[in-house]
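Limitations
The structure tokens in this dataset are predictions for the assembled complex, not deposited experimental models. Users should treat interface geometry with appropriate caution, especially where small molecules or nucleic acid strands are included. An illustrative entry is reproduced here so readers can see what is and is not provided.
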Amino acid sequence: MNAAGLNSLRNGPDENGRFGIYGGRFVSETLMPLIHTLQDAYEQARGDADFLAEMQGHLKSFVGRPSPLYHAENLSAHLGGARIYFKREDLNHTGAHKVNNVLGQIMLARRMGKRRIIAETGAGMHGVAAATLCARFGLDCVVYMGAVDVGRQEANVARMRMLGAEIRPVQSGSATLKDAMNEALRDWVTNVGDTFYCIGTVAGPHPYPMMVRDFQSVIGEETRRQVIEREGRLPDALLACIGGGSNAMGLFHPFLDDVAVEIFGVEAAGLGLDRAHAAAIAGGRPGVLHGNRTYLLMDEDGQIQDAHSLSAGLDYPGIGPEHAWLHDIGRITYLAASDEEAVEAFELCSRLEGIIPALEAAHALARLPEIAGSRPKDQIVVLGLSGRGDKDLPTVLSRRKS
Ligand SMILES: *Cc1c(COP(=O)(O)O)cnc(C)c1O
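Predicted assembly:
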């Protein structure tokens, strides 16, 4: 038994999609039948050896898995502590971890006979992954994107259009990710028959947080095998950045029952936790948004507040419900890194390792001095390098000049 009184922390959620008091299915009556159909289809698919084998094949030949576990020797020496490894999700086709989840959901959509895929996107990485797999499998793709994000993520908008996706800019609210997700949910209710909603992180109503986690767990499963092969034992600590929390949950989940492995999630502290930020655990409280109960940034009246992060991929006022639960039971420690700290870490990693990281992942890199630098040299720390930073160069370079 562990701290939560469970045999395994990996068993959740319960049949109603609850992780403790978090998660669930807070959706309109019209969506309920769809959610149940989706859940049944997923339960069948996850137990089907043919489905899993086909997915394995695509992960290998199309996505390029397994991704390497890379020993960041220069950064380890620079910080003077533990041996640091990067799990290289930046080397996946389309340049981030998002494709692992999208592949799983698109294969499920095909199995369910759905020909129209809708998705929400912030920085555009999930939209690009969705557009890519829709092109590969000949499906229609509609991507909802906040008008502000359409303006600041030109390169990814161009990629999605090249791949044949239709972009629908969303003007409501703050015209960013949360508003895009509202619109996508509305589309889904309206087009229940032929449409599959492909959610990009471990959020939304049950079964999404569980399903996305399962598809992303390939990250942690590979890491486990690779670190044992290389070092003959499990790592001492894991860390990853948190937007909605899917790359982090994918890395962490296979290690949840290994209590000797310390686990750290890093939220975006933006301009500072006392100013504008996107750290739902550090600065939020439990409420309901996008179909689940979790920690959210809210004002005194319970209105959702706009998140702020220099990194569009972390610019979300919530966090996946499983993270909320793992925080409450004390299994995972949640930290934060500011815009400025992330930019510094971005530059340091580029110079020392020859790897330009996504600005999202740079938030995790920013906490390495405390998490790895303070440990003895024989310890092992694995960082989830969620994506590559090409998309962030204009943002980072424009700050350097000012
Ligand atoms: C989308 C994205 C994130 C944030 O999403 P999570 O669901 O928290 O993983 C982090 N890194 C990169 C590179 C992304 O594209």
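Some entries come with short summary sentences. For this one: The pocket of pyridoxal-5'-phosphate is lined by residues 96, 98, 123, 125-126, 201, 241-248, 313-314, 358, 360-361, 386-387 (CB under 6 Å).
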